[in-house]
Protein 1
Amino acid sequence: MHTGIAQPNRDRRVSVGYLVACAALITLATTLVFLIQRGILPMWPCALHELTGLYCLTCGATRAAVALWHLRLMESLLFNPLPILLALSMLVVIGFESAALIGGRRIRVDWIPWTALMHVCVLFIFFVLRNTGVLPGI
């Protein structure tokens, strides 16, 4: 039964969990960029592009992540908007969860599914624009 009373310990655990997940993702992304730049991890060609000549939704996302890591925002955006969208979303989550930890109560975020839907819509629009020649290929 829900009493409407905040549960500070549970809220704190959830916020810490989100922040740990964000830290793990940032660490993973940093490690992958480092390994790619050093040539330890190869960048494979896109199978969809090789078979059909079409760019997929995530074509260029690795190069975009490397460009974003070096703060070349426009280059990153032209390769693929996905890393920028994910970075901005992660900053928002980190901000909300940090505020929840500092303030001692959880901020309700019902908009997360809408954010994911917005990411997919932006990627689909990017997919269409790139494959119709409006945006340059990579």
Protein 2
Amino acid sequence: MPDSLALLPTVNAALNASAALAILAGYVAIRRRRVGAHRRCMLTAVILSALFLASYLVYHAQAGSRPYGGAGWTRSVYLGILLTHTVLAAAIVPLVGTTLHRALRAEFVRHRRIARWTFPLWLYVSVTGVVVYWMLYHG
């Protein structure tokens, strides 16, 4: 595997961690009624997540998947996290898209209604993406 390809899992984890921080910062900003800061944070999170998704797809198209090397209870924990992460990662793409679309159209009542679901799920997917990486490559 070329060195540049071998770096992508680490790049992906960094993008996921950065997206999680941007999501959290956006949440704090809106709770403090700092709408402009919230908008910047959330757009940053969308961009970071899109970069992650592109990088993730490139890596897995070229390198395939990596099996988990652990055994026993850690394997069960890993598989539980991976299962919830994978299911919610598939669901989060249309949720983020819908939430963003409603915000950009200034449909703020509808935006808030779906953002209440999007926020915790998107944060969970971003954080568990880092956990999955850590367990696969450093566990």
